[in-house]
Design brief:
CATH superfamily of the largest domain: Cytochrome c-like domain
Bound molecules: heme C
Low-confidence stretches: 201-211
CATH class of the largest domain: Mainly Alpha
Shape: elongated
Mean pLDDT: 83
Number of strands: 0
Number of domains: 2
Length: about 210
């Protein structure tokens, strides 16, 4: 009995493997949708192949992607282009020209502090002296930058570094919006570099005094 089952099984397998082939030698497809998914990919031009449909129809069909790429130079809503390239010159220029656009308030410093606790503290440490947990555990080499009053670093350079990264510090551009990066710069300067919050107000008061 077992023999018979084995033979029957063998014949069945052989038949399925070699059987039903169409004239091109290909097996017919059972429910072809399952193999040829109708899913449409973005940006792919589904224009027809002229080999099959002729140039005239292919021409009509050409350039019909499922979605179109935005026109070159398009700026997403809420995004500000950052004109300083990731070069030494870009870094220097950002340092000279870029100023924090956000008002320097306690509330903003508080927001910056929260972000610092999420994204920076494990390297730069709670007090900004580079004693973060990664450094303490020996997982990351000591951080050369210590945030304190003696650090002579314009805010534009700080923003640039958070945007592109520097040395062993990676770019944080994909994790933090531009506004969040400025909040961090504000927090670091106020908390560790002892920059007073109302300094922009002071500058204005001084100029008024001169006039
Ligand atoms: C993985 C560790 C690591 C993390 C996380 C990290 N940093 Fe850094 N950071 C460094 C290192 C290393 C340097 C020194 C870079 C150099 O000068 O070579 C540095 C330098 C800096 C500087 C000085 C830049 C300059 O121009 O000299 C600033 C400002 C800074 N970090 C801010 C931040 C902020 C804000 C965050 C959180 C969003 C952050 N860092 C997260 C490792 C880190």
């Amino acid at each position: 009995m077992k023999q018979i089952i084995k033979i029957a099984l063998g014949v069945f397998i052989l038949a399925s493997a070699t059987g039903c082939k169409d004239k091109d030698g290909l097996a017919p497809e059972y429910m072809p949708d399952m193999y040829r998914s109708p899913a449409i990919e973005t940006y792919v031009d589904y224009g027809m192949d002229p080999y099959y449909v002729g140039e005239a129809i292919a021409e009509q069909q050409r350039n019909r992607p499922s979605a179109r790429k935005p026109v070159e130079g398009t700026i997403p809503r809420g995004y500000m282009p950052y004109p300083y390239p990731n070069t030494f010159e870009g870094y220097q220029l950002a340092g000279e020209q870029l100023k924090n656009p956000l008002p320097k308030t306690e509330e903003n410093v508080k927001k910056g502090k929260e972000l610092f606790g999420m994204f920076c503290v494990h390297c730069h440490g709670k007090d900004g002296q580079g004693q973060g947990s990664l450094v303490e555990n020996g997982k990351f080499p000591p951080i050369p930058t210590k945030f304190n009053e003696n650090l002579d670093l314009p805010e534009g350079k700080m923003f640039h570094t958070i945007t592109y990264g520097k040395g062993l510090m990676g770019s944080h551009a994909s994790q933090l919006t531009q506004e969040e990066r400025w909040l961090l710069v504000m927090y670091i300067r106020n908390q560790f570099m002892k920059e007073p919050l109302n300094n922009n107000v002071n500058i204005e008061a001084d100029t008024n005094a001169v006039h």
